[in-house]
Every structure is written in C-alpha cells, then in structure tokens.
Design brief:
Blueprint (H helix, E strand, L loop, with lengths): L1 E3 L2 H13 L4 E6 L5 H13 L2 E6 L9 H6 L4 H11 L4 E3 L3 H4 L19 H4 L3 H16 L3 E5 L3 H13 L5 E5 L19 H6 L2 H15 L2 H13 L4 E10 L15 E9 L2 E9 L3
Parallel strand pairs: 1-4, 2-3, 2-5, 3-4, 5-6
Antiparallel strand pairs: 7-8, 8-9
Helix pairs in contact: 7-8, 10-11
The chain binds adenosine monophosphate.
The site of adenosine monophosphate has 17 residues, from helix 2 and strand 5.
Amino acid sequence: MKVFRYKKELKNHIKSLNNQGKSIGFVPTMGALHQGHLALVKNSLKDNDVTVVSIFVNPTQFDNPDDLKKYPRNFEADLALLQDLSPEILVFYPDAQDFYDGKIQSEHFDFDGLEQEMEGKHRPGHFDGVGTVVKKLFEVVQPVRAYFGEKDFQQLQIIKKLVKKEQMPIEIIPIPIYREPDGLAMSSRNRRLTPKHRAAAPFIYQVLKQSKVLFEKEHLETVKSFVKETIDAHPYLNLEYFEIADEQTLKPATKKIAGNKYRGFIVVFAGEIRLIDNISLVTS
Ligand code: AMP
C-alpha cells in the first residue's frame, strides 16, 4: 500500500494515473477509521479505478483546542483496515506544514448561508476550516468522485456548494449513516466515551426515531419539545441542540410543506464527548 506524505509526490503520482486514463475516487477522513468510513471507501472502490483515502486531523476546523488534542489518532490500525479492503488504495497522510505551505490558517468562505446554521453557530470557524482543507485536498487529488457521509449532513451540503462555487468538476456522493447494532451512529469520537456514556448514547437514535413518527402527525413545536424534554430528562446526556431544517437550505422549518424534505439534526454531549446525528423526516 502506498502512503504519501507530501503534496508534490502525490500530485506527480496522480498526474501519471490521469495520463493512463484512470478514474480517481476520493474519501477524505480524519482517521481513527471505523465501518462508517469503510462504507465510503467500499463505494469508491466499486465506482473508480483508483481510490485515494486521506487521513488528516485538520487543525483549522477545530474550534476547541482540547478537542483537537484529544481527537483519536491510530494511523497503524487505519492502514491495516485499508490494506484489508484493498492493497491498491492510495493513502494521503499529509504533513501539516507541507500541506498548508507553512501557514496553517483558514480561507473565508461564503456558502450562501449554509454555514450560518446549526454547526456554524455552535462551532465558529468550523466550516471555513472544512472548506479550506477539502478545497486543498481536491486540488491535489483531482478526483472525479468524492464520498461524504450523511452523518455530517450539513458538511455534505456545504461541500456540494463548494464544488459548485469553485467550479470543480467533482461529483459528490452521499453515503447513508452507518450505525452500531444498537443504533449509535459510528464515530471516531465514540471510542472516547466512558462505559456509562457509551451505554447511554444509543438513546439519541431512539429519540430521533420517535421524533420521526411524531413528525408525521404533530406540529413542529410538539416534536421539538418532545426531543428536548426527553433528552433533558436523561441523567447522562445533555442536549446542545435539536433542529428541524429543510434539507436543501438547512434553514429551520417554520411550517411543514408537503413534498419538502426535512431532517432532524441533533447534538448531544455524553459526558465530555460531543455526538452528532440526524434523521430524515417525512411529511404526511
Ligand atoms: P471524519 O473522519 O469524522 O471527518 O469523517 C470522514 C467522512 O466519513 C465524512 O464524510 C463523514 O461524514 C463520514 N462518516 C463518519 N462517520 C460516518 C458514519 N457513521 N456513517 C457514514 N459516514 C460517516
């Protein structure tokens, strides 16, 4: 398995693949890989001649320095998982100074308001960091397709907007949320949960599923109050926010319009660990 540390090396390799007419699929990750990430990689292996996986805990997208410091890193285990899937995968494991040309800072983006909602409000600068790293990664890898999880649904919509605005000819492929058997959305952060909080965390998806049933018949405010009160009543979980928003604009829904696509977006602290999840909601 080939591992690239420097932009120039990978760019040269990509150039020769392009000359051979190979299609390139790309899966950007922050490592500490799990089955959710691997679902993205498997899709890319299926659709493309060559798959590039990047593993980079990108400093510019962290609004909280402690979160950056404690983010799980497990490069050797990540390589073993990828190797098992396919020894042909190319791994980009950038050196931060080389990747950022010595200036580790974000560009500022306008994503037509998508960046102002939900995670944008709660994690200042986060989407500038995400936009910066993904744009740079796309410039190096030049994929025909790139794979993003619906677990980070707002990020997915922002990346679609990024390629549109930057006129990058890259197809963005969404992949459904991959869950543990008990319903907890897989996340690298799950491995930092204490046993008590790990046992509590599947409750989040149970509440989301109940909210989906309620949404079919009840008013928006009834659904929102239900989620807030139910999570607030849990001894080990703290709700940061629950929002029902339009899938395209990500603006909070003010009334249910038949035919529109909505989602419930939730962020919950289980102890110190911030967990994110969402569910599609259907109007009756
Ligand atoms: P991360 O390493 O957390 O930045 O995630 C890298 C990519 O994997 C992003 O596109 C995520 O949305 C996606 N991803 C992470 N967890 C899951 C999951 N449980 N199901 C589907 N996609 C996921």
